[in-house]
Amino acid sequence: MKKIILSVLAVTAVTTTSAFAADLSGWAISEYQSANEAGLVSYSVVSNDMKANITRQEFCELAVNLYKKLSNDAELIEPEVSPFEDTDNLAVAQAYCYGIVSGTGDNKFTPDKLVTREEMAKMLVSTLTAGEVNFSLSDESDAYVIDNFDDGSKVSDWAKASVITALNYSIMGSAGDNTFKPESATTREQAIASINRSYEKFANGGYEISLPTITLPENNSEIEQGEFEISWTETNGAVKYRVLIKDSQAQPVIWEDVDGTSVTIDAPWLSTNKDYSIIVGAVMADGSECYSVPVDFRYKASEKADKDHHVYVASNPKGQALIDEAAKYLGVPYVWGGTSPSGFDCSGFMYYICKSQGISLYRVADDQMHKNGTPVSKQDLEPGDLVFFGSGDYATHVGMYVGEGMMIHAPSTGKTIMYSDITTGYYESRYIGARRVY
Q1: Domain shared by 118 and 74, yes or no
Q2: Smaller CB count within 10 Å for the chain: N or C?
Q3: How many distinct structural domains can be found in the chain?
Q4: Is residue 164 part of a domain?
Q5: b/e per residue, 332-346, with b = 16+ CB within 10 A?
Q6: DSSP bridge partners of 386
Q7: Does residue 186 sit in the same domain as residue 310?
Q8: What's the rounded Cα separation, in Å, for the pair 436 and 426?
Q9: Position 325 in a domain
């Protein structure tokens, strides 16, 4: 087991969290599992919100994965130079070489542009063609297939044959309300479903990966703030595993490649009383990837770290003034270089709070540790003392001690001003000193 330094497990079953609520629709679960068993899914797609719309570059990765399985081509072309000026993504270059995609003009691919439904149909059919599978491309004599849709006339001429073919083979379907919506974007989970249906319809079969299954924590668990363990079943042939944790907006907050089938997570910046999901992927020797079904959990504040309701008390009135002032900014976002209530970095927060109380500090954490105030031993800490973290004698982070083993600080990008425990986990291991500045 590898330990990630990114706080032992306290899990209790709950029934209030809905699985897949943020990241994967109920209808898409079986398609997602099947696509992963076939090695069709890529990290760039799974690591984003699967309910959100897919880009041209992301769809190229899915299409190239499909081509590999349809053609049984073990060694794909790897162009030394990208055919486009605005992306060097290998899958895009390969998709172009195999005639799956084309550019958008002026040597551009526009990789972040969203894929429309008619573009997806075109790319799917082009992938089938490149893979030399046995299928019939519509000659548009069966145009009634799209004419039956209320918006069938909106399908572009260049896409009609592909849209009809995709509908005929049920690799795409109606967008609802008797519409096809050819110019609308398509979501990542919809793209995964169409790629999977194409594979099931036209592949010769024989390729199936046993997906990793997360065994700890259980789905819909509460995990108490601190270190926790994730474990999963082994996938035969995997050369490594990828652990991904997303927040309730399906944005990745932790991602790491690991060996073995378990890992300990120590992530003091995770927000308490918030929902997260875990996905574990297996990377195979041939480069194929497969990902587990997400497991949802709530990261629950420990009693000691309940920052939203706890009031910290200092014996010294100057220390009390400092921690009371700091508490006013709970929830303010971390901003690198920030020294104002619109956003703080760690030393900028200390600089601002102390200045408000008539205390002058140097701007940088290491200078604050070596040039401000007087040293204080850890056992003699009082609320209002500055506490420093880093390596050796060099401080890379600073917070303000508030009592009871806690500090208030600006943690890192993507986080907000919060209380954290300095007696366990990451902050205990990186603690290097303290200064009293009042």
Answers
A1: yes
A2: N
A3: 3
A4: yes
A5: bebeeebbeeebbbb
A6: 400, 435
A7: no
A8: 23
A9: yes
Residue 411 lies in a domain: yes
- Taking the whole predicted model, whether its pTM rises above 0.70 is answered as no
CA distance 414 to 245: 14
Shared domain check, 339 and 253:
no
Same domain, 222 and 159: no
Cα–Cα distance for residue pair 108/86, rounded to 1 Å: 6
**pLDDT (tens digit, 9 = 90+) per residue, 312-333?**
889 999 999 999 999 999 888 8
Q: Residue written as tokens 């760690």?
A: 346
- The model's pLDDT over 118-170, given as tens digits with 9 standing for 90+, comes to 999 999 999 999 999 999 999 999 999 999 999 999 999 999 999 999 999 99
Residue 315: count of CB within 10 angstroms of its CB = 9
- The parent domain of residue 309 ranges over 305-436
Cα 226 to Cα 267: distance, rounded to the nearest angstrom: 8
247-264 b/e with 16+ CB inside 10 Å = b? bbebeebbbeebeebbbb
Do 158 and 218 fall into the same domain? no
CA–CA separation, 322 vs 335, rounded Å? Answer: 21
Q: 29 lies in a domain?
A: no
Which of the listed residues 202, 226, 252 is the one where a domain comes to its end?
Answer: 202
